Predict the structure of (S)-2-hydroxy-acid oxidase.
Amino acid sequence: MSLVCLTDFQAHAREQLSKSTRDFIEGGADDSITRDDNIAAFKRIRLRPRYLRDVSEVDTRTTIQGEEISAPICIAPTGFHCLVWPDGEMSTARAAQAAGICYITSTFASCSLEDIVIAAPEGLRWFQLYVHPVLQLNKQLIQRVESLGFKALVITLDTPVCGNRRHDIRNQLRRNLTLTDLQSPKKGNAIPYFQMTPISTSHCWNDLSWFQSITRLPIILKGILTKEDAELAVKHNVQGIIVSNHGGRQLDEVLASIDALTEVVAAVKGKIEVYLDGGVRTGNDVLKALALGAKCIFLGRPILWGLACKGEHGVKEVLNILTNEFHTSMALTGCRSVAEINRNLVQFSRL
């Protein structure tokens, strides 16, 4: 069967995966209202195309944190890729390198950071951190990723406690997962994920200065949904924000990412870059996010679908499909470059 869109990959991946793994990837918090609204919210936005423009050449390239990427379509941090493909994050990293886009590696990667770097030595890599209560452990990990050539530190904010993910609780999945990178300072063995879920519950805004003191990497805050937190991010001199609700896996019934984007973009007033993850499934979705102020989007579940279907080649196909769709969307709205995408291209539907 030909897989021609991201939902085709979703359907095919479901056939390849065990129920517990499928539930782990697809599941949301509580009633999954936010998970579903992340997708539905994009469909409430309509496009306003401009015609009679020369679109014989359309350029999808852009930059994030000063680094060029082939398209504003990158890979969000998700954990445990070895659940869906033997080479796990190594395959994901190779696909990202081939596509010329950024891959945010998760703290909960199932491959070592060293193996991921060896697999894709020329790839653009950022590292996502869940703040651990032991500061020294955070410092060791940050220094390690910096020495390995990661270009930014992405700190996840929306997980002081784990969301109520009913499917994972029923399946007792977390008891069977282990980490290879978040290791005890006293022991070199991998730590069961179930033991690591009590991430720091005391981490607060004033702690950001400590992270800034121990790394030269730009700091990106992931999980901001309000203007108040966006303003605080600017005040604390971070370099970027990812507007995200954790794929609807943390606090249910919050705003869809695309609905929160406008508020956050307005609050930062162009002082720092703003990105988005959650609900992107088509090239039109990418265009809408950029029109509302996102510098680029990050893909979560669709990358795992591609990985589950065909490994590295599946991830490449997912990225290629979405990039081609985005190219078409640009041409059909009269945009010859990413710089020409603006707020006038979209309006919110009353439906």
User: Anything to note?
Assistant: The first helix runs from residue 6 to 16. The chain has a mean pLDDT of 92. The chain has 14 helices and 14 strands. The chain has one domain: 6-348.
